[in-house]
Specification:
The protein is an alpha+beta fold and 114 residues long. It is 19% helix and 45% strand. It has an 8-stranded mixed β-sheet, with helices on one face. The mean pLDDT is 91.
Length: 114
């Protein structure tokens, strides 16, 4: 089971410029503001800015679906024909993420919150 798409992550090259743009777009200040991640909380969703995303191959925004068992869901996606973009890893505080590419080239993100 999934809690739906709870996070959308955007790769950015200039974190300060992106922060200003998303402040203007969303009308709120960041809830998390670090040199490696900026997150805005709006309407039950997190909009995140990732200054390292381009180096990991992100080409645009990626939606992350909250799941209870990230390893199991990743295996189900791979069995369904998806290919791994980013294997399961901890991004801090026990939060796990992973991503896959579907047959059409879309990147789908998975997230498991402790």
């Amino acid at each position: 089971m999934s809690d739906g798409m709870t996070t959308i992550l955007y790769p950015v090259t200039d974190l300060d410029a992106a922060k200003a743009t998303f402040r203007a777009l969303l009308g709120v200040e960041p809830a998390q503001d670090t040199p490696y991640y900026v997150g805005f909380e709006v309407g039950g969703q997190t909009i995140g800015l990732d200054p390292g995303g381009h180096q990991r191959g992100m080409r645009g925004g990626v939606g992350y679906v909250e799941v209870d068992d990230i390893a199991g869901r990743l295996q189900a996606l791979l069995a369904a024909g998806a290919e791994t973009v980013e294997d399961v890893h901890d991004v801090g505080g026990g939060k796990l993420i992973a991503s896959v590419r579907d047959a059409d080239g879309n990147v789908l993100g998975l997230m498991q919150t402790p």
